[in-house]
Task: structure prediction
Amino acid sequence: MYHATNASVLDGGYTGLRGAKRVLAHRYASNAILKAIEQMRISLEQEDYNLDSVALCCGMDRYQTSRMFRKITGVSPIKFLFALRMDAAKRLLAESDRSVTDICLDVGYSGLGTFISRFKAAVGLPPAEYRQRRRSTGTNLPALIDCMVRLRAEPVSGLRGRLALPEAFSGIVFLGVFDTGLPEGAPSICTVVTQTLDFTISPSMPVDARIFAVAVPWKNLDQTINDPSQALRASMSCRTFLDGGNGRTLLLDIPGPYHPPILTSLPILIDKMLHSATVRLPPAASLEALRMETPHHEDAR
Result:
């Protein structure tokens, strides 16, 4: 999980009178980062909005801004800004009829070719194809998820982890390792969980990468999988996971303002994984049967 979702980390983990000043300083930095993120959101059209702009908004120098931004959000200010730009483009493509060129300008890019290539790398498809896919997908999602779950049923060796979810949750959890620290493009490692709160993932992950988990409920499945902005999520650095920190437990929670958007298109990711799958699929299971495989939560509290 991102540092900002943990109050004790936001306070720097300091206690007692001796740490009071450090707690106040850490809270000040957290508030400054939040202010900077809010300013980013209303400055997406400004192509020249950069690290100096963020530092000025935070009232800190460039080094302090970058260091605190990484500590609180998990990524650099420039990566966070990039994620906001791409997320805004995704929404405009899905919800408006504005041209790709206009959307390119709306999110701070003057070069259409640069925008298209970066969008494709982050999301999985060029903007025009993404728009077409968003407006046509839906009926095939249950079948795709069904196949993914059956793929996951194959024996996998590796490191074991655990998910912590609200008791009322019923659905599917996607886990991926992303080398850039953002949930963008295709993950280097990916798996899904439905039957249990435990998962197994390959240990061959870069220590500087991050593990992301996104929970998609069966209710409103199509809507949530296409727009997981409000889906329960968690993140952990691969270094922490490999070291066995926090018992390798990912605590999924409602996303907050410090979380960068999920850029990877889950339906496109699933489709690509299915087409590249080499394992033999067992007989198909119905989506209704999958819905009955709700994880047991007694030990996740």
User: Anything to note?
Assistant: The beta strands are 159-164, 171-178, 189-193, 198-201, 210-217, 232-237, 249-251. The chain has a mean pLDDT of 81. The first helix runs from residue 7 to 10. The two ends are 16 Å apart (CA to CA).
